[in-house]
Structure formats: C-alpha cells, structure tokens
Inverse folding.
C-alpha cells in the first residue's frame, strides 16, 4: 500500500491550443492520473487559462497563480522564461499599448501541503526544465539531498517536495 502523500499536482492547460497539442495534453493527463492512482500524488487538478494576462492585472486568480510562480522561481534561483514572457499588445480601439504576460500551452505546479514546491517549465543558467522532466522526477521519486530531482542525470528544480524518505 502506498504511503499517504499530501502532494498535489495542478496542470494548467491553455484554453485554445494549436492542432496537435491535444495529444500532448492527453498523455500528460494520463501520466498524472497514473501517479495519483499509484499514490505518488494525493490529487490532480486541472485549470484552464488563456494565452496570457495583463501584467498590471492584480485582481484575477490566474494573475495570483502567476505571481506565486514568479515568487517560487525567484526564491529557488530559477526563471519562468522562456515559457512565460512579456509582450506588448494594443487594441483596435486605442493607440495605448500594454504589457501582457504570455502563458505556455501547459504548465505543471506541484504542491506539498498546499505549498508550491515546483513549477514546470522553468529555467536556470544551464537549461530549461520541462513538464516531462517534472513527470519523470515524480515517477522515479528520486531526489538528491539538495533541492533537485534527478532525471537522466540532469537535476530538475524542486524544493524537496518529491523526497519520499
């Protein structure tokens, strides 16, 4: 019987995605569901988001999620770029431009006891850590004593949440 876990995964999925992405979304969902069935995750949640949010928007839930991701990345020494990026956009009714934060097609947040422990994708000075890296880390449950999960001999960002010791 698997040990009880307080680990939750939240998969953020773009509401409108290009052709072909639905297969990737389905495979990712299937793997997360398998991890939940195996007891690695207590639960899996799914959230739909658009392609971005105005950078100055402070009242929406999704901007709050983004801000939480940024805080985690800053605290852990990672960045959310290039998956999340700022872009300037205008409207047909005004000459005014505003900054919009573009969201990736898929994003995985891993929470331990309601505390954010990892975000995929994210990057450091050496590489970008993908959702695939996060899933492999969860599936293998191999964590070094530092703050990383090992995946194909490459560290995957983590605050220690995948450590089952």
């Amino acid at each position: 019987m698997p040990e009880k876990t307080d680990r939750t995964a939240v998969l953020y999925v773009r509401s409108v995605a290009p052709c072909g992405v639905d297969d990737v979304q389905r495979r990712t969902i299937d793997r997360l569901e398998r991890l939940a069935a195996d007891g690695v995750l207590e639960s899996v949640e799914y959230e739909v988001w658009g392609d971005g949010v105005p950078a100055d928007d402070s009242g929406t839930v999704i901007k709050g999620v983004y801000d939480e991701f940024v805080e985690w990345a800053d605290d852990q020494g990672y960045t959310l770029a290039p998956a999340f990026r700022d872009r300037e956009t205008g409207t047909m009714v005004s000459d005014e431009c505003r900054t919009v934060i573009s969201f990736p097609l898929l994003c995985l947040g891993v929470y331990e006891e309601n505390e954010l422990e990892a975000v995929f994708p994210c990057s450091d000075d050496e590489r970008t850590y993908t959702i695939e890296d996060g899933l492999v880390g969860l599936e293998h449950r191999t964590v070094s004593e530092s703050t990383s999960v090992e995946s194909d001999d490459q560290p995957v960002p983590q605050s220690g949440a995948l450590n089952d010791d």
Q: What stands out?
A: The CA atoms of residues 23 and 72 lie 29 Å apart.
